C-alpha cells in the first residue's frame, strides 16, 4: 500500500485533510472541456487567450476577473465570474454520472473517526457538486471547504488553514492527503505533513518533484502513518 519508507509521525497527528476528486471519490469530470468552457467565457469579454494559457482553471478565472475589474469595474467583473462559475459547474455536474467512493475511502474515514482523528475535505470543487458526490458515494465529513468558501484555493494554503482552524488543530499535527501535486504543495505551504495518493494511471515518480512525506497506492497506507501502527 505504501510506496516509500518514511518515519511515522505516530499519535501526534490529530487531523487529516483530504482532497476530494481522485482521493475520496471517483468522478468523471472532463477538465479539458471545463477549461475550454472557461476559456470561451474569458476570451468573449476580451481577455487575451495567451494571458491565461499557462494558468490552471481557477487561476484563469481569477486573472480574467481582475483584468475586467481594472478596465470595466466591479459589476462587469462580477458578471464574468458568474459566467465562468456556471461553465465550471456545468462540467462538474456532467462528471457526477457514475461517481462513487474511491477504494477504501469509507473504511479509512471510519477508522480515523474511531480513533478520534479529525477529518476535513479541502476541494476546488463547488459546494453543490461536493455535497452531491459525497451523497452518491455514501461518505460524510464534519468539515468541508470548497471553492465557494474563499477567494484563495489550493495550492494556496489558505483553505487548509481555514479547515484546521475549524478543527482546532495546528498544522504540525495534521496531514494533507491528495492525488495531485498541488495538494502536496498546499500542505507543505500550510505546514502540515503530506501524503500523496498515487493513482494507477500515473507514473511512479509523479510526486518526485514535490517530495511528500509518504506516497501510498491506496488510502489504507495512510493509517499506519497517522495512527503510528504497524503496516
Task: Label this structure with key terms.
231 residues; alpha/beta; Rossmann fold; 2 domains; six-stranded parallel sheet; two-stranded antiparallel ribbon
What's the gyration radius in Å? 18 Å
Helix and strand composition category: alpha/beta
Question: How would a textbook summarize the main sheet?
Answer: 6 strands, parallel
- Give the strand content: 5-15%
| Average predicted local confidence, pLDDT | 94
Q: How many domain regions?
A: 2
Structural shape: globular
Order of helices and strands: EEHHHHEHEHEHEHEEH
Which strands sit side by side, in order, in the main sheet?
Answer: 5-4-1-6-7-8
**Helical content (DSSP H or I, runs of 4+):** 40-55%
**Number of E strands:** 8
How would you characterize this protein structure?
With 231 residues, the protein is α/β, with parallel strands linked by helices. It contains nine helices and eight strands. The protein has two domains: 10-27 and 99-227, Rossmann fold; 31-94. It has helices spanning 31-44, 49-52, 57-72, 74-94, 105-114, 127-137, 158-167, 181-190, 222-227; strands at 15-18, 25-26, 100-101, 118-122, 143-145, 174-178, 193-197, 214-216. Strand 4, helix 6 (127-137) and strand 5 (143-145) form a beta-alpha-beta unit. Helix 1 (31-44) packs antiparallel against helix 4 (74-94). The mean pLDDT is 94.
